[in-house]
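TASK: fixed-backbone design
INPUT:
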């Protein structure tokens, strides 16, 4: 029959994210591998994606820069701290860039945060939005656990979500704005490498 695929299952590789096609339906599609990752697993080696995602030097014990967001997003008067947009944003962006985080992951996080901000502006129900913010962290934990993203990415999301769920202002004026700045510094750091 024309147009019928020879594969029983098509999806994304759980290890590297590339397209995976199988002649059978896997029991757990979330653990399905592309042919390259399957071959490397059978040979007992690590994939290029895994070795690429291992953090390289210049990190504190946890991977994030020392003192990152220790003072939160706002100063004692409730204004966004300059460091959140410049110094700390630049430092964490450079750490993320050194870890070989794929730019698409940071862009995707920013896009989802913007969509949540837009939804909040329409509904004004921050409590309902909190579950979606925790979902951003769950996604980061999942992608790090599957070795798609480096550990520092999960740590970055975890630190920010911990601050963002405090209230609407922390999310909209703190997290989203900080993430916008981190994304910009990240792109600059990647283009300089």
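OUTPUT:
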């Amino acid at each position: 029959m024309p147009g019928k695929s020879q594969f029983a299952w098509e999806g994304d590789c759980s290890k590297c994210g590339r397209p995976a096609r199988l002649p059978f339906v896997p029991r757990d599609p979330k653990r399905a591998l592309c042919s390259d990752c399957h071959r490397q697993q059978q040979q007992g080696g690590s994939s290029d994606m895994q070795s690429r995602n291992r953090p390289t030097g210049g990190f504190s014990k946890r991977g994030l820069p020392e003192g990152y967001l220790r003072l939160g997003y706002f100063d004692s008067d409730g204004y966004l701290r300059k460091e959140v947009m410049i110094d700390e944003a630049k430092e964490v962006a450079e750490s993320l860039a050194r870890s070989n985080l794929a730019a698409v992951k940071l862009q995707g996080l920013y896009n989802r945060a913007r969509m949540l901000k837009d939804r909040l502006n329409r509904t004004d129900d921050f409590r309902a939005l909190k579950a979606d913010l925790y979902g951003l962290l769950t996604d980061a934990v999942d992608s790090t656990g599957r070795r798609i993203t480096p550990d520092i990415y999960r740590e970055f999301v975890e630190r920010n979500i911990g601050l963002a769920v405090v209230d609407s202002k922390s999310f909209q004026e703190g997290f989203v704005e900080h993430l916008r700045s981190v994304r910009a510094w990240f792109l600059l750091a990647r283009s300089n490498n």
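COMMENT: The chain has two domains: 9-50, 55-192.
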